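Lab meeting, action items carried over

1. Structure of the two-component assembly. Owner: GW. Status: complete.
Input record:
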Amino acid sequence: MPKVSLTVNGRTVSAEVEGRTLLVQLLREKLGLTGTHVGCDTSQCGACVVHIDGKSVKSCTVLAVATDGANVTTIEGLANGNELHPMQAAFKEHHGLQCGFCTPGMVMSAVDLAKRNSNPSEHEVREWLEGNICRCTGYHNIVKAVQAGAKAMAGAKAAAD
Amino acid sequence: MYDFAYHKPASVADAVKLLGADGEAKPLAGGQTLIPTLKQRLARPTAVVDLGAIKDLAGISVAGGKVTIGAMTKHADVAASADVKKALPALAALAGGIGDPAVRHRGTIGGSIANNDPAADYPAACLALGATIKTNKREIAADDFFRGMFETALDAGELIVSVSFPVAEKAAYMKFDQPASRYALVGVFVAKTAGGVRVAVTGAAASVFRWKEAEAALSKSFAAASLDGVKASASGLNSDIHGSAEYRAHLIGVMAKRAVAAA
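Predicted assembly:
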């Protein structure tokens, strides 16, 4: 079986995978990182969004073996110990979730947007989240959370600089 | 998904060799169509040849009135390219409207064109702009490339290396997208080029096609009003749960007018 070595949430990991093993299967089944969800499994719903080399991708539509040498961040890689990432805190504050199933993918997509655009308009947020489907909230509070989270991320970055 | 052997060659020559040695092997570009296809067991290749490590397949250059995009260039990179935005803004906008952001971070122009999905966006740009598709062995004009539903002029084991788009005087792409898949229910790319006006339609039929009646009307005057009274025929158009052939025919006219107005 092919061997794959990559960095996941800052940690170097290696695993033997089949050619057909998906990145999301490697994360969930081999590495125990079950925060990344499988929703539709047809590349539409976005519950499985993670970052590869800083860019949001659907981990159900990437072969694990193809990520050899890549730097992957999952929802588990965002928080600093018990301190939530600003985007996670914003989702909590603005009630950006109900059942929570889509939330890891929503947050990972939102973080990618916020890194590019620290003050996205409602329209920009809704466009960016086209590939993330939520069946509970009607998106209203998700959009508010993403806008607040983006501002909080910019504020945290400014404070750190 | 059935299992397969996985190869990740470092050069086009090695990829072609691997594909030539095994007729059941499939090249993998961004995987945004191939991987879902494999998951549904609609394809069962013996081997997957991942083109992701071939460095010279990705990249954008603008020179001599042409925008040349490497086959493995991601949609997001085309959409964000300052060079493409300046030389061919309609192409950057089209790339920025494919799928969703996560799909655009993986999907590639070469993969889109080689797959020739009836509702894909890039084939419309290729056909309307009169692009040239460069493979590992020849150059193919877009007019000769798209042959039918999921069919192209590519031979077995032939790989797209890059696509060259001549810059246009005016161009725009408008699509009416299917809200779940983001594929074009109907997409129309209009271009006023040195070689005349060209109008390409995607999503409406088995494969992308040129709407010659609209081209003739727009050649007289490149204005939305020139299309008043020019009706696309519903004959041979797709009909499904999302829209009848007649509905698609109507949309072709609407999208064409919007594209001309935006160009």
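2. GW to write a short summary for the group page. Key points so far: The helical segments of chain A are 23-30, 86-93, 103-116, 122-128, 140-160. The beta strands of chain A are 3-8, 11-16, 49-52, 55-58, 71-73.
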